[in-house]
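ping. complex inputs:
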Amino acid sequence: AQSVTQLGSHVSVSEGALVLLRCNYSSSVPPYLFWYVQYPNQGLQLLLKYTSAATLVKGINGFEAEFKKSETSFHLTKPSAHMSDAAEYFCAVSDRSGAGSYQLTFGKGTKLSVIP
Amino acid sequence: EAGVAQSPRYKIIEKRQSVAFWCNPISGHATLYWYQQILGQGPKLLIQFQNNGVVDDSQLPKDRFSAERLKGVDSTLKIQPAKLEDSAVYLCASSLRDRASYEQYFGPGTRLTVT
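pong. complex structure:
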């Protein structure tokens, strides 16, 4: 089974500073990788996904992520943090279950705080 | 396009009581998922439906949890009897097809508190 590790359960940045959220995966096959964002009392919303078309993936709200096979990483970045970016971020990998269906395995999440 | 709808949004029950959650996926989405999200953790898949059939329920505690998807559209998840450790947010998600690259769309969740 594939797994996802998110380094840092809580990250704080100043408004306008670089955002870097780390995600490493384990996979024996080329993965499909996703970043989701969860605002308080809401469901998860897709930020971006990697499906092998390009290693640098651009998403919504100015976020992007780079797939690095040699490092088994898919870190999420944003050049300049905004107050509205404060939320919890989840990295996920698509995995084939024993039943043959496709499922998402999520990391434990990183809570991003933005300091004014 | 309407999103995934869930109700109720919040529920407080005592242990050993029963509770049911409802989900209406995005129209036309064949695949439906129920997740359990315990505070401080990522969502954990409980059950996956393809149309009105169960594809995978290997992580569903079947002694107390049950789920069904009526006519391949709406779905209900039931817990009977509830335990304290069932306190969590229950998320419903849907996807157009069962494909590795297809996005899952999530509802707002139901926050369950068992006292």
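Chain A has a mean pLDDT of 92.
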